[in-house]
């Protein structure tokens, strides 16, 4: 089971769009996937059209108590169809976003996801843990909030790869650098399996001089860490999200262009699952 976090420490760059696009590509290619909505805004849960969740648990409950029985109640099928489930997001998740969490708090999400992969904590099973959990999943996509508190750090502590999402603006470089530093810090703190998969630039407009300059700047500073394909700024993305359907099923030229980038991203994610861990050199700093 490959766990991928979509990460940005700058709001409004389309981090949830990338999480949804990657999940949609996985579903389209028959890769059973769980999307973990860790952002208290819960936009991914809404876009995935899960319906009424008042009778279910949420990711906030899982972070309170990561037993199998709680996890099972917090995972529901998406409205996008078979093969894609959701660990439901909720505004209450914000109560877990402490700025300086203890190690035990940071480990709860990873512990819960470990149960999906068949993991267990010997001697720590409690009543209700004998309940079957959903799965198996080949891919877990975690949509992180745009801040470096307990929630994002919990995702990095549980993840194998991180996709750093940015846009081509003047604040992009510092945002990507801070996100990269957060990944490196979590590797050193206790998750040596975590690697930055790459930097994905979103909302790029063709023939826009400012965007071309910022894309070139990112490529110069971060080198091969920047994905060769960028996500173009297309209205189809907002239209598909507004209709609560995957971009892969929105039949317009713009949607197909965006979908192709997500298919490439999925391929890179799946290839990284078989790649041995290696040290990642930091990109140059300004």
Strand-helix topology:
Blueprint: E1 2-7, H1 15-28, E2 33-37, H2 43-47, H3 59-64, H4 68-74, E3 75-77, E4 84-87, H5 103-106, H6 108-116, E5 139-143, H7 150-158, E6 161-166, H8 172-189, E7 195-201, H9 209-222, H10 235-242, H11 253-273
Parallel strand pairs: 1-5, 1-6, 2-4, 2-5, 6-7
Antiparallel strand pairs: 3-4
Give structural notes.
Residues 5-241 form the CobQ/CobB/MinD/ParA nucleotide binding domain. InterPro entries: CobQ/CobB/MinD/ParA_Nub-bd_dom, DNA_Partitioning_ATPase, P-loop_NTPase. The protein is an alpha/beta fold and 286 residues long. It has one domain (2-273): P-loop containing nucleotide triphosphate hydrolases (Rossmann fold, 3-Layer(aba) Sandwich). The chain has eleven helices and seven strands. The protein has helices at 15-28, 43-47, 59-64, 68-74, 103-106, 108-116, 150-158, 172-189, 209-222, 235-242, 253-273; strands at residues 2-7, 33-37, 75-77, 84-87, 139-143, 161-166, 195-201. The protein has a seven-stranded mixed β-sheet, sandwiched between helices. Strand 3 and strand 4 (84-87) form a beta hairpin. Helix 1 (15-28) crosses helix 11 (253-273) and helix 6 (108-116) runs parallel beside helix 7.
Briefly summarize what is shown:
With 286 residues, the protein is α/β, with parallel strands linked by helices. It has helices at 15-28, 43-47, 59-64, 68-74, 103-106, 108-116, 150-158, 172-189, 209-222, 235-242, 253-273; strands at 2-7, 33-37, 75-77, 84-87, 139-143, 161-166, 195-201. Residues 5-241 form the CobQ/CobB/MinD/ParA nucleotide binding domain.
